[in-house]
Amino acid sequence: MHATSDGVVVVHHDPVIHAEGVPQSAAAAIASSNSTAVKAHALAPGIGIPTLAEALDAIGTRAVVFVEIKAKNIEPLVVRCIRESSAECAVHSFDHRIIVSVKKIFPAIRCGILQVARHLNPVGSLEVTGAEDLWQHVDYIDEELVARAHAINARVIAWTANDTRQWTSLRALGVDGICTDRVGDLGAAGQLAH
Known about the structure:
There is one protein chain. This protein is α/β, with parallel strands linked by helices and 194 residues long. It has helices at residues 35-40, 52-59, 75-83, 96-105, 124-129, 143-151, 164-173, 183-188, and strands at 2-3, 9-10, 16-17, 28-29, 42-44, 47-48, 65-68, 89-93, 110-115, 133-137, 155-159, 177-178. The protein folds into two domains: 2-48, no CATH class; 67-188, Alpha-Beta Barrel (TIM Barrel), CATH 3.20.20.190. The protein is globular, with a radius of gyration of 18 Å. The two termini are 29 Å apart. The mean pLDDT is 93.
C-alpha cells in the first residue's frame, strides 16, 4: 500500500508508477501525486490503479485480504480503510515499526512481519512487535523456525515459493501458509488445504 498526496491509499507494488510507454526517469511518485493523477495512469489498457477501498469492496468477504504496507506514515489511512470495509484483513510489512504503529491504532487486527534473512532469534521480532504471523523468505525456513514460531502461537507464512518441491517441503515442515506467484498451480497440486 502507498498513499497519494491527498491521503488516498492505493494498491501498487512500487512507490512510483511505471506507465507503459513512459521512460523510467519520468515515473510518477505516488506520494507526491494526488489521487486524480494516480487514477489517470493505466497499467495496461483498461486497467488502472485501484484504491484500497475499491479492492476491499471488490473482494468483500470471499477471502482474507493480506495488506502489505510499504510506505511509511500511512498506517492511520490504511487502518481507516480496513475498518470502513466489511473485508477480513491482516496487515504485514518489512518495516517492523509499521506493525508496531498499526497495533497501537488497531490492536485487534492480525499482523505479520516480513523477513528476508534468517535471524538468530527468528521469533524475537514477533514478540517485540506483537505480530502473530512471521512472513519468512522461503530460503530461510527450517524445522526449528517453524517450531519456535508455533511455540508462541504464531503462524509461519513462506514467501515467495514458486516451485512444487518447495511446496511439498514446506508442508512437511508445517508452515501455515504459502505465498506464491503460481496460485492456480498450488491449488491444482492440492497444496492449498492442510
